[in-house]
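Pair request: fold both.
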Amino acid sequence: MIEVSMSTALPASPDEVWKKVGAFDALHTWHPAVQSSEVEGKTRRLHLAGGTELVEELVDSDEAGHSYTYRIIDAGPLPVEGYESTIRVEGGKNGGSTVTWSSRFEPVGDPMAARSAIEGIYQAGFDNLGKLLS
């Protein structure tokens, strides 16, 4: 089992950041790799650049605590199995916030390549959030 946890500090309030990232169907509005998404019940289908798709399921959502947890049902091109992840927004320094994106999964193939792929996804999302919220 591999665990990945990454955080980024943002100059916006937790409520402002949560408005951007908190909706399960909003990933396409802030992550550059996701072109669109469709949500039906607790399942979202993410359409990625290049035409591939991921299917994910909402496991838990805590609006007051600014977090949600999801699992991947169909990993598409990602080299992972049993992937479960949480996105959490907390108060940070000087009225800003900290976003933490963490996961656990089994790698498919090379463990370092799987870790690197997930870290790259998180970093791309954080980088774009920084642009959108500064």
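--- second member of the pair ---
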Amino acid sequence: MHSAPNKEADCNGSSDAGTAQRLAAVLARIRAAELRFGRAPDSVELLAVSKVQPATLIADAFDAGQRAFGESYVHEALEKQARLQSLPLTWHFIGRIQGNKTRDIATHFDWVHSLFDIRHARRLDAQRPPERGPLPVCVQVNLSGEASKGGLAPAEVAGFIDQCASLPNLRIEGLMTLPAPGADFDAQRRPFAALRELRDRLARTNLPLPVLSMGMTDDLEAAVAEGATIVRVGTAIFGPRPAAKPETTDH
């Protein structure tokens, strides 16, 4: 049996009895969307976005059955990983990759969802500990061309994947996107459909690209409708996020 951290003594935050109920409600939304849109039961994985949330709430979600957690800030994530090391959690890096953080990402994370720079890809490949096996990654696609968001233009994705093909310690699993908010359900579906169609064009026998990481709290149903295999949900599980402390950047 795994023991959760001492919630009473956690100076970073307190336990929240509502986490389990909110988690159950999100899972119910996902399962209902699977049924509504003809998806196979349990074909969509929930990634609980725990960035800037305290370790206690992650432990609460673990107690309620959640295993996969998404973090955006490396230093903060490493502190939580150390505190929760007794729990069998899967850690996904979902934030903007910084060159001076690639060694920690390669060493301490199980997944990366936000890869779009070949320099970062090469560093992650070189720095991945051999005993951990290839690092599963998703290529981030910027479908709307928003300057404020990272990611490749759709036309750049095929070439990027070809460049990554020679990196033995990375495994390209699929695509990720962070679209602009849609005004209605149909508008929400359009960028997710575009990502799915891009994946379908790029997939081949030796590169099936099974993962589509797309959809968040406000649009997860639209993402499930268009083929999401991972939805990333934070506020609907943990509540509003506390303010994040900026990390040192290295462009």
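Observation on the second member. Residues 92 and 111 are 5 Å apart (CA to CA).
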